[in-house]
Amino acid sequence: MPVEGGSSSGSASAARHPKQKRKAHSLSIRRTNSTEERPPGIQRGDMLEGQDSKLPISLRNNLLDLFGQIEREFENLYIENIELRREIDSLNERLTGDGQTIEGGDPSKGPLKTKASHSTSQLSQKLKTTYKASTSKIVSSFKATAGSRALCQLLKEYVGHRDGIWDLSVTRTQPVVLGTASADHSALLWSIETGKCLLKYAGHAGSVNSIKFHPTEQMALTASGDQTAHIWRYMVQLPAPQPPPDVSAPCDDDQDSSDREEGEVDGEGPCEVPTVRVATATLKSHQGVVIAADWLVGGRQVVTASWDRAANLYEVETSELVHTLTGHDQELTHCCTHPTQRLVVTSSRDTTFRLWDFRDPSIHSVNVFQGHTDTVTSAVFTVGDNVVSGSDDRTVKVWDLKNMRSPIATIRTDSAVNRISVSANQRIIALPHDNRQVRLFDMNGVRLARLPRSNRMGHRRMVCCTAWNEENQSCNLFTCGFDRQAIGWNINIPALLQEK
């Protein structure tokens, strides 16, 4: 979670709640009839140099990665098989010992034999089921990876921040640009087509934890670890579009991106870009880190969420505090507004999220949604009457605003879920994970695809946030992570739904 004032990757990373990190594994290739290990310093691609193959080196390396995953899965199954066999031997010994205490009892005959056979049969069936389920999982994962590459294509990488990126957003007005908020105390605006940085906002004294754009004007709202939220204006001019690079071309460098040094950054950062340093309005009523902020429909009011356990509602024109929304028992993690109604949802570490209704100025009702068992990292509205919530408990839940007692769909994942987003037109949920994965689901909880991830494609560290852009009859998904970069993806929605 973003920190207050921290500017380095280490300090910003330490402020998040402790989460398990996955280690990068390198694939070890061995010959089945030889005990010799691979000589040190030889890469996977080098081992295949002498073999006659017409496959591109990038595709061959990808296949090696996939088969390496299969090898690790079967290695785990092999270990589990050994443990099960030990249990069977132990059970047989125990049954034999029990048989010797019975007069005239023969453990190889009668009820004892039946009991032993039944227990052994159960363990054998469990072993077969485990093999079958794990093998099916491996095969389905292999197929999903191949299909995802056709459905989700890399559009552009946006590299220039000097610390992790917590949040990103796309403008709702022309010109359409991408905004990113980073722990390096800055927010950057990017050309979506070219990946060029267009403008930098450097008015905050702490980590920039959130960025949202005004619905009709060229204004941005940022929340920061310096306990303030800023409203600032921007003017950008889009550069001429450039031809997209060939992302499928082979690369001589086969270094795993996850193993790079902390200081390494691909590409060149924004050297000389226009910089805005003074905010149009500064919102200062919080007593802790401001973790998120958003515009209410119409853009005349904004809401902010803070680690001081409160959310504040402000008038944009006067910067006046209108309401303080209290009720959460622990720090807030996110806030979101409804696209067409005066509704606000706030999420918290107290495992709940709350719905605030401002449609009637005299009544500010609140509904509490309970259903998660760990921190609710985000809760967002859909175009209809649904709210989608994500949590560190590795689940995502879809709720009906008219019935808050139980979710209408639950998505279970293998990693904590960060700031999610839902596409407006197709209502597809994009889930960013701590384990660097990004998965797509529909509102019924059916998995649609997983974004490609390899040595040179995808995020190298935790994915923090996702955002959709569905302008100009195309569908783009943007992701950002603690590897200091944002990535744009082109999502083939018709093919995605057809695969479903």
Q: What does this 3D model show about the protein?
A:
It is a single chain. By secondary structure, the protein is an alpha+beta fold. It is 21% helix and 31% strand. It contains five helices and 29 strands. The protein has helices at residues 9-15, 44-47, 57-100, 110-151, 493-499; strands at 152-159, 165-170, 177-182, 187-191, 197-201, 208-213, 219-224, 229-233, 275-276, 281-283, 290-295, 301-306, 311-315, 321-325, 332-337, 343-348, 352-357, 366-370, 376-381, 386-391, 395-400, 409-412, 421-422, 429-432, 438-441, 447-450, 463-469, 476-481, 485-491. It has a five-stranded mixed β-sheet with strand order 2-3-4-5-9, with no helix packed on it. A hairpin with a 5-residue loop joins strand 11 (290-295) and strand 12. Mean pLDDT is 80; it is low at 7-42, 100-113, 133-146 and 247-268.
